[in-house]
Amino acid sequence: MKLAKTIERRTRLYMDDFLSNYRVLYPDASQAQIQRLMDILAQVDKERPAALQQIDADREWKADWFQQPQHVGMMLYVDLFAGNLQGLIDRIDYFKELGITYLHLMPLLQPRSGPNDGGYAVANYREVNSRLGTMTQLRELATRLHEEGMMLVIDYVMNHTAREHQWAQAALQGDPFFQDFYLLFEDRTLPDAYEKTLPEVFPDFAPGNFTWQPEIQKWAWTTFYDFQLDLNYRNPNVFEAMLEEMLFLANVGVDVLRLDAVPFLWKNRGTNCQNQQEAIHILAAYRALVRMVAPGMLFKSEAIVAPDDIIRYLGSGGLEGKACEIGYNATMMNHLWHALASENTQLLRNTLSQLPPIPKEATWINYIRCHDDIGWGISDENAAAVGQSGRGTRNFCTDFYAGVLPQSYSEGYVFQRDRQTGEARTSGTAAALTGLQKALVEADSIKIDLAIKRLEVLNGVIFFMKGIPLIFSGDEVAQLNDYHYLLDPLKAGDNRWVHRPPMNWAKAARIHEAGTPEERVFSMHRRYIETRRENPALHGRSYDQIIIVDNDSLFVCERNYEGQKMLLVANLSRNPQHLSISGLPAEWQNGIYYNALRQQGLSFVNDHLLIGPYGVYWLKPALLLESSKTTSIELSMYIPAEYGEAIYVTGSLPELGNWDWSKGLAADPQDYPHWKVRFEVKCGQGFAWKWVRVRNGKVVMWAEEDREVMPV
Prior knowledge:
Blueprint: H1 5-25, H2 31-47, H3 50-60, E1 73-76, H4 78-82, H5 85-90, H6 92-98, E2 102-105, E3 109-111, E4 122-128, H7 135-147, E5 151-157, E6 160-162, H8 166-172, H9 176-179, E7 184-185, H10 189-195, E8 210-213, E9 218-221, E10 228-230, H11 236-252, E11 256-260, H12 277-293, E12 298-301, H13 307-314, E13 326-328, H14 330-342, H15 346-354, E14 363-367, H16 380-385, H17 390-401, E15 413-415, E16 425-427, H18 430-433, H19 436-442, H20 445-464, E17 468-472, H21 505-508, H22 517-533, E18 543-547, E19 554-561, E20 564-571, E21 577-580, E22 592-595, E23 600-603, E24 608-611, E25 616-621, E26 630-638, E27 646-651, E28 665-666, E29 668-671, E30 674-682, E31 687-695, E32 698-702, E33 707-709
Parallel strand pairs: 1-2, 1-17, 2-5, 5-11, 11-12, 12-13, 13-14, 14-17
Antiparallel strand pairs: 3-4, 6-10, 7-9, 8-9, 15-16, 18-19, 19-20, 20-25, 21-24, 22-23, 22-25, 26-30, 27-28, 27-31, 29-30, 31-32, 31-33
């Protein structure tokens, strides 16, 4: 089959990348096998719709298109969010109102009936789950999203198929060609040898890694569940067949394939059969082939593994820019939750500082919650580097977010406790884990405010840092844990469903009612999204520097893209914190800034910033405080004084005498022993002040400590 000119050019461009990786996997592959792959590409190119070809052309020549700061994602279950695909199409305006450009639909390809691992047991890659709609509707959704400048993201399960898939059924009926599609064994000799070094993914649900198949009297490799048979990527026919399924979805209009369970693709005896180098070569070979025919489609690796391994899936060791373009920043996610619980950022900033840089062609997905549990991927080495026990730190996180520690505000749940180590993971919605659920039940307005501030600081970090921020559906309106899953026998044994609630549209309608938790949380998300869009410093190819400061409650990071700079200052503590300006890079030391989140100038004149409880600033450098507006400040003090004494207030502003009490303001004793003083300051002006007791023009007593006023 003759290739069109465009695909000919791309083939010349990417053929060496393809062959160098393919030959590692299949050194004995024939020219005929390689030609079959080229024929598949030619047929896909011939069938690719013109609209998708135009998208390919636009994206091919703007390689950083997905790294632009306006991109923000949402992930959701179609049925839980909108019932079906048509309902989802009808909700596109909701995504537009929030500012979503990247829509990740949780598994929606046809699964097996009965237990199906949340849709990850795929029985047919070319059909949509009939409960959710049709492939025609998925094409329509892709078209509508493209018209609105949005991306369609779906899951592509690479490691296994359902035993009901036609390949598996043929294998279970004895077809030797399809039996070689899977990892099957005549007896327990090899499975037992592998099991010596294999961990269990679901020790409670599915212990072991092999399942007896009575139809063929063989053992099948089943990493996850007994109804999911692992594919045999040592067989080049599997590589070819999965390429065809992948490219079928590309022509449907999918923009990003979330490649599920990629750490498990290749098995080597004597290892844990995860993160093998051959798995990276599989992805790189696919990446090169897809770029030949559909360069507008991206790969996202679902590799929730150790930090050094995560980087490999984005390209390292000569494969930079040749593997997946997007990866999950699970390291930041779980370390950020630890920082919130401990009110200490040492482990967070130390670990992130040690991460190897990702290729410039790649980016992160940053998130605080997703459909899955929180795995406490805190290494013993990183914990020890800040004087902590790895296991003790992981168990602290589990216990804190399960609400069993006295200081905890969380209402999460323990998931999959390891029988040998006692360690476990955590389930729960963001609102439940940050204390909003508990505060609403108690109707405590102070606790509600604090919980929303915790959501603000968590999101303030992930929306600022390099990558595409991702919202799990429902978190934008602060949905709580949902316990209806306990009534469903297919879900009741898996408490991850507690944080996968159906979208509560009555709750979502309150986003327009000022002051409601829903409105406050939704507006917070929208403010972050709008601010990202307006600031090129947050481009995905920025140079980033985590700044180690002398306050362990603070997380500080500078981003710099082509000379445009922004500074994140986040307080992970429930108490106000100070940051010494002199500890910042030189251009941040004049104490005058522009707060991009509030679109106002800020001024601090005491060699330090003051950050309120769970406060977050996105700062830009400024030369002076450009504000003509003023605001009224009232300071109140409780000071018993003797007859004839006066109270003066002095401080760091000219209005307060610049620490000369005689030029400060006299306080009003009308409500003695409560004293008050009122004056006007520029909006955005922070300052320090102190009271002074004076008699007959002489100082009797100074207050022991300075007090701070946050910029307004």
